[in-house]
Amino acid sequence: MAGSDVDLVTLRHSAAHVLAQAVKELYPEVKLGIGPAIEDGFYYDFDRSEGFTPEDLEKIEAGMKKIVAANLPFTRREVTREEAESIFANEPYKLELIRDLAEDAVLTVYEQGGFVDLCRGPHIERTGLVKAFKLLSVAGAYWRGSEKNPMLQRIYGTAFPKQKALDEYLTRLEEARKRDHRKLGKDLDLFSFHEEGPGFPFWHPKGTIVYNQIVEQWRSLHTSRGYQEVRTPMILNEALWHRSGHWDTYRENMYFVDIDEQTYAVKPMNCPGVMLIYKDNLRSYRDLPMKFAELGHVHRHEKSGVLHGLFRVRAFTQDDAHIFCRPDQIQTEITDVIALIGSIYEKYGFKDYRIELSTRPAKSIGSEEVWTAAENALQEALKTAGIAYAVNPGDGAFYGPKIDFHVRDSMGRSWQLGTIQLDFSMPERFDLEYIGEDGKPHRPVMIHRAALGSLERFMGIIIEEYAGAFPLWLAPTQIIILPIADRHADYANEVAARLKAEGLRVSVDSRNEKTGFKIREAQIQKIPYMLIVGDREASEGKASVRKRESGDLGAMPVDEFIASLRNELTV
RNA sequence: GCCGACGUAGCUCAACGGUAGAGCAACGGUUUUGUAAACCGUAGGUUGCGGGUUCGAUUCCCAUCGUCGGCCCCA
User: CA A144, C1' B72: Å apart?
Assistant: First the structure.
């Protein structure tokens, strides 16, 4: 398997070279950036003032087909720095790359059909091997990934060894589009966005039911593990944010309001508010750990270009919690949090997740010693728990290092959900204390953590995960009752009342429509169960059950149906 | 924020310089219906918002807001 992965990478990298060759042949004035293979394909960056139109992409694709048909050999050649500089004399970006290569680096170029590119390789043998490829899109991308650099035109494409694999990939893209949460959110009437508040989601009744179900599950798991739920204010005065360090490190993402000649900030994070709760009482070593959970609605002024449905919004609810503990409790606490997060994911079928440890970022607060201590503590906790993890240098929060949970969904996509952040700085800044066994004040440690990350993003993820077909416990409408004709409405309402009495979410479709039509609509609305009731059912106290996934299950007594739902809900 | 594309009825789309059109949904009627779409009719839009060009703009130009695909960021 590993072998074939490498081949795919090589194939795509070579396809990127073919793309660059085609572009250079069509538009010789274009300057080359870089063109690597990426997870699902490849891209190549070009500097061209006019950009590329979809028609240009078609021409380029045709050019690539010719190059593939010519079956040109790729040849590798080692060159001296001087040779390289002369070959790429008209390619400023390549020259920059050459300049930045280590003194003793071996420079290589690859050539096919007169097109030469600076490249480490490897490549496939001949262009004819690029059998199945397609250019997908064009987008701006900063040279070397920095917004300080010029923006180049990036052409994305993908390539596979066989046409069948390419077709399957394109079908998969199509499938992913069908389950896009933005589309399903509209189709299923879950939420909306409006010009009046870009990036601020509006939860409709059905979406709110799903949201509340998630919260209910979250809440019961937390209270049973000793968390105490709190709520802190949405806006707090400027002084607090200076003290927390947000003013200096996070201000550009914050909203402010001026009232009574004071500046208030809308909270972008919940921690400073919770600090005040901790400080409101004298704490004993016996009180620790204290675990304050908060479904905190935070606002962050994200740049307009990054907004993306529910995945990236400007107001969201973190399933936050702050654990205040003694230094000797860090490991147990972190181990507990890891276990809790795992049990929350399990309910959604997310069993495949990986953990990453992120260390001190460039923009941060706190001393070197404190950071090292915090990073070591997290690492120790992970090692003791025997959990494998990768390290992301420089990716931590400004107040401390963190562990992130990345889950893989049913479509193989990865999402960052949970996070555990260890913080020695904030307790320092807020001068938090607890009285130890020795009767003297000591500094507690704070652990910030979230399991779902943001309820909004999580909703987006599970909408796509389930393609809108929520499991019974989450479904906005769990059961819809479909009376065959007007004369069955009373019986339908009677059955509905019995189900409602059981706490089930049920509705009755008594419209003047044919049963086939009502079933079709209920299927499109992805309602888990349909109960069809007519003369036969009414006379026997039964209901014909139709399940969303498996269709007609036949008639059964209403009690029996209720019992089976009870059973399904407790699994 | 940056690059590019796109905003037409509740939804999905058409018309692309000459008085804005379809399907679905909505509403009214007929039908009383048995496991994924009955039939007939009615209504619905200062074409995102603001300027400009033109005899005339949904169509061309400018600006602005929003959305989409990426980049930089990020829960």
Answer: 11
Q: Distance of CA A218 to CAs A372, A449, A463, Å?
A: 32, 13, 18
User: Crossing angle for the helix pair A455-465 and A205-223, nearest 10 degrees?
Assistant: 110
Average per-residue pLDDT for chain A: 92
Whether A414 contacts A406, CB under 8 Å: yes
* SS3 assignment, position A316: strand
Q: Which residues contact A267 (CB under 8 A, 6 or more apart)?
A: A232, A233, A234, A235, A236, A273, A296, A298, A299
A320 strand B contact, CB < 7 Å = no
Looking at this predicted complex, what is its ipTM?
0.95
Tell me the pLDDT tens digit for each residue of A310-334. Answer: 999 999 999 999 999 998 898 899 9
Report DSSP state, residue A328.
G
* Burial annotation A555-566 (CB, 10 A radius, 16+ → b, else e): bbebeebbeebe
Q: How far apart are CA A46 and CA A56, in angstroms?
A: 13
> Is the distance from CB of A59 to CB of A26 less than 8 angstroms?
yes
CA A566/CA A437 separation, integer angstroms: 50
Residue A72 CB partners (closer than 8 Å, separation 6+): A112, A113, A126, A127, A128
Covered bases, chain B (protein CB within 7 Å) = 1-5, 11-12, 30-38, 65-75
Residues 277-316/A with CB within 7 Å of nucleic chain B are: 300, 302-309, 312-314, 316
Cβ-proximal residues to A518 (8 Å cutoff; 6+ apart), any chain? A480, A482, A509, A511, A530
Residue A562 tokens, joined:
């209720």
Pairwise CA distance, residues A278 & A427, whole Å = 10
Nearest partner of A543 among A534, A519, A528, judged by Cα: A534
**Residues 6 or more apart whose Cβ sits within 8 Å of residue A521:** A509
Q: How far apart (Å, rounded) are the C-alpha atoms in residues A434 and A483? A: 64
Report how far residue A73's alpha carbon sits from residue A76's, in angstroms, rounded to the nearest whole number. 10
Sign of the C-alpha dihedral, residues A328, A332, A334, A340? Answer: negative
Q: What is the pTM of this model?
A: 0.92
Per the structure block, which two tokens stand in for A167? 């077709």
Element (H, E) at A515: helix A515-524
Count CB atoms within 10 A of the CB of residue A351. 10
